[in-house]
Amino acid sequence: PRHFALVPAAGNGVRLGSQTPKQYLPLAGRPMIWHALSVLCRQTRIAQVYVVLSAGDAWWAGYDWSSLGDTLRPVFCGGATRAESVVNGLAAMAGELAEDDWVLVHDAARPCLSPILLDALLNALADDPVGGLLALPVADTLKRAHAEAGSLAGVADLGGQPNQAAPRRCNMPHGAQAPRVAATVTRDGLWQAQTPQMFRYGLLRTALAAAPRGVTDEASALEMAGYQPRLVPSELRNFKVTYPADLALAELILAGSR
Ligand code: C5P
């Protein structure tokens, strides 16, 4: 079976107003999405790298992608949710893929994926009939916050934060009430799901078609269909850039791995 990558990058920037969509925010001299695409395109076991962009994407054409080689396939068929963008991307790839080919779905907002982690995923799942995902065993003690005062609504993620904003020292908004602990959640056996999530094309397409359009990752769709995806141990560096302060951390990691 062959391997294909699919990068959903059709976040339409609604939360950003007229600001730069997250996947195009400048990071280490490139648009954020370039970094993950670069790792995927350099992996010779991956035949083609599809990027799902929104139909009205005015940013993609503004950059030169030629350094990424000839396996890159931009498709302008993004949907209203991440899951819908993935479904549309799979449809756009359909002519190329056999049922047991692999699809690696990777977030544009995880720019610090490394070739080593990608190799680890490919190797761990090579003989698996279903697939799995990069994931990180939870290291911290976990607290559930009381719902009323504890909502994180006041914490601005990148979606609510202008690109040009001054660097923030922490993610606690000024004047916000720190929520109270409702309970401690045992972390035994808990993992944080990352991407790439790598599944057989036929299973992934069928599972996503049956899953609610709001599922936030591919593995949940496979789980709902009765499968048990494998958790492949990852590293903290493959985190999802979410808060403004995360950009500086991603820059540090990328600078250290050059
Ligand atoms: O917003 P969030 O970080 O969860 O988005 C995860 C990924 O899904 C991003 O790469 C984003 O561009 C993509 N996405 C998409 N289509 C949507 C919404 C998000 O491809 N409708």
TrEMBL record:
Marked site positions, Positions MEP for the nucleophilic attack: 187, 240
Metabolic or biological pathway: Isoprenoid biosynthesis; isopentenyl diphosphate biosynthesis via DXP pathway; isopentenyl diphosphate from 1-deoxy-D-xylulose 5-phosphate: step 2/6
CDD domains: CDP-ME_synthetase
Top-tier EC class: transferase
E.C. number(s) listed in UniProt: 2.7.7.60
Keywords per UniProt: Isoprene biosynthesis, Nucleotidyltransferase, Transferase
Site annotation Transition state stabilizer: residues: 15, 22
Record flagged with keyword Nucleotidyltransferase: yes
Molecular function (Gene Ontology), one example: 2-C-methyl-D-erythritol 4-phosphate cytidylyltransferase activity
Record's catalysed reaction(s): 2-C-methyl-D-erythritol 4-phosphate + CTP + H(+) = 4-CDP-2-C-methyl-D-erythritol + diphosphate
General function of this protein: Catalyzes the formation of 4-diphosphocytidyl-2-C-methyl-D-erythritol from CTP and 2-C-methyl-D-erythritol 4-phosphate (MEP).
Family from the record: Belongs to the IspD/TarI cytidylyltransferase family. IspD subfamily.
PANTHER family the UniProt entry points to: 2-C-METHYL-D-ERYTHRITOL 4-PHOSPHATE CYTIDYLYLTRANSFERASE, CHLOROPLASTIC (PTHR32125)
Protein name: 2-C-methyl-D-erythritol 4-phosphate cytidylyltransferase
Naturally occurring in which organism (per UniProt): Dentiradicibacter hellwigii
